[in-house]
Design a protein that fits this description.
- The chain is an alpha+beta fold.
- The chain has 2 domains: 67 residues, no CATH class; 108 residues, Sandwich (Jelly Rolls).
- Helix 1 packs across helix 3, helix 2 packs across helix 3 and helix 3 packs across helix 4.
- The longest helix is centred in the first third of the chain and has 20 residues.
- The chain starts with 8 loop residues before the first helix and ends with a helix.
- The relative contact order is 0.18.
Length: 218
């Protein structure tokens, strides 16, 4: 397995500082189990974030200090950190398995949400905004054109999809924000299963998609 799409540096820093909401944190942890590069970068980000928090009287991080942290992350010596063996292609990340109480995608209780689309909502606090769950999209299906109301992370766990940003296979993560609009299309001959978390509703372009959105809550 080769991971080609990684977490944004700002997301890694927020993860290291502990400022991401629960669902986004879980998704980052799942990606780190599959991606040695981001796992190493996250360790460095956590170390740097801890030093900065110890040096600052306030928790707020200004633009200039954040830029300095990003520069330090980019120059950190990451090769000294251990890299675990890549997981089997059919294995769930541990952090997700602990939430689902299951280790097999096929035995999960999927809820049909539209033609070629099924969903499993994962538990989060009532106060936490956005969607958190699994999507299963059948081969050849195209998701409607959509943008994002805030941060959205999508981690591919099985199968693959393509959009204007490239090909996303197992372990790849799409780290998106309000500036991104795309139309994912599932490729290959197996369903694409993705773990998705966002902190604001998805912005679908068509009214039929917005009707479905009310049903599944993404």
């Amino acid at each position: 397995m080769t991971v080609n799409h990684h977490l944004d540096e700002a997301t890694l820093f927020a993860f290291g500082a502990g400022t991401l909401q629960f669902s986004l944190t879980v998704l980052v942890k799942a990606h780190l189990e599959l991606c040695p590069k981001c796992r190493c970068a996250a360790v460095a980000a956590s170390e740097i974030g801890g030093v900065l928090l110890g040096e600052q009287d306030e928790l707020a991080v200004g633009v200039e200090s954040k830029a300095a942290v990003m520069e330090r992350i980019g120059t950190a010596t990451l090769h000294r950190l251990p890299v675990r063996t890549v997981r089997r292609e059919d294995e769930m990340p541990n952090v997700l398995r602990s939430l689902l109480k299951d280790a097999n995608f096929d035995s999960l209780k999927w809820k049909k949400a539209g033609p070629g689309l099924a969903v499993i909502k994962l538990q989060k606090s009532d106060e936490e905004p956005g969607f958190f769950g699994l999507l299963r999209i059948e081969p050849g299906r195209k998701m409607p054109d959509h943008g994002h109301g805030g941060t959205e992370l999508t981690l591919v766990l099985q199968g693959a999809y393509e959009d204007a940003m490239g090909h996303f296979g197992r372990g790849d993560i799409a780290d998106l924000d309000e500036s991104d609009i795309h139309t994912p299309v599932v490729t290959g001959d197996v369903a694409c299963i993705c773990l998705v978390a966002n902190d604001a509703p998805t912005r679908f372009q068509s009214w039929p998609a917005r009707l479905v959105q009310r049903f599944i809550g993404i």
